[in-house]
Amino acid sequence: MPTLNLGIVAHVDAGKTTLTERLLFEAGVTTHIGRVDHGDTVTDADAIERQRGITIRSAVVSFPIGDTLVDLIDTPGHSDFVAEVERALAVLDGAVLVVSAVEGVQAQTRVLIRILERLRIPFLVFANKTIDQFAASQFDLALDRSHLQLTFADEFNTLNLRNGSSGTWNTNFWWGGANGSSLTGNGELQWYIDANYAPTSSVKPFNIQNGVLTITAAKAPDAIKPYINNYQYTSGLLTTHDSFAQTYGYFEIRADMPEKQGAWPAFWLLPADGSWPPELDAIEMTGQDPNKLLLTSHTNETGTHTTVSSTPYVADTGGFHKYGVLWTENELVWYFDNVEVAHAATPADMHEPMYMLVDLAVGGIAGTPADGLATPAEMQIDYIHAYSLHDWIV
Description:
Layout: E1 3-10, H1 16-26, H2 47-52, E2 59-65, E3 68-74, H3 82-89, E4 94-100, H4 107-118, E5 123-128, E6 148-154, E7 190-192, E8 206-209, E9 212-219, E10 233-235, E11 237-239, E12 249-256, E13 263-271, E14 279-284, E15 294-299, E16 306-310, E17 321-327, E18 331-336, E19 339-345, E20 354-362, E21 377-389
Parallel strand pairs: 1-3, 1-4, 4-5, 7-10
Antiparallel strand pairs: 2-3, 6-21, 8-9, 9-10, 9-21, 11-20, 12-17, 12-21, 13-14, 13-20, 14-15, 15-16, 17-18, 18-19
């Protein structure tokens, strides 16, 4: 029978022995979960261990799981007994490094990590504690909207396109050509259709139905390719460049993102004065990796274009979800369904009005569509909102 030597290691009072008790109970080795404070745990058998509530010597409990014999080794956590820990580590096939979710990483945690890495022992990190030991300040709490004042709202009951000096949404970058545009520097494969350009008017990337805006990325018809620089795909872009810009605030989209290889939806902000960077990406995603949020700020504060990015994973982005970014004088905070998922310092050059953009790109970081968009990709938008922070309306 093959044997697996699995060690439980941790800084003192992280809950290592308690975890060991739970594992033994779940494996059917015991019928009762012992407690350190009751002095009835399996691995703290010595009288002094039970009296003082700490592990002094490594202890082993063996039990079968399937065809494998598991030797579960509970080791001391106190730094005074690190030699005892190293003795046990010499025989391990793997380890569980327990970290108190309340106290966080301790000096002894770092010592253990260095030892595990030096011995090339694979390990996973287990954050341990019971719910009553947490405080509210240790959680990412929901967005507090009480200090936000609505300054922009489009519920997409209609699509109010820019027409001369009126209307909300432009369908082209301000620097784009009369026939539309693309971002070639990003490796994008789509051409954004300009709603005011007659030769491509047969392609309609925007559709409103039941209060939902759908932006569609699809194969470009052969008939219009000469008018769109022979791009293979068409899609849609909306911007508030000529209608709305704001310094600081909360910017939010509620959308159902495409889950399709090659689709690259985004909701983002650019400076109203036409400079770049900075840029603030409230949300970007790639269709083939829909649970990965791409959250980025771009800056030129050092004289060179640099980015600060976070890529949190969320459990599910199927259907409609809220994606937002809070931009303040000092901090940027990104939210998913009203819960904070990332934050960063506000760059030194991000203190002037910015306007909103939403688009469905193809290619770039999302790669080439696997099916050539034989089935079009769709980004559905329920609403786009912007809020000011008290008197910070511009």
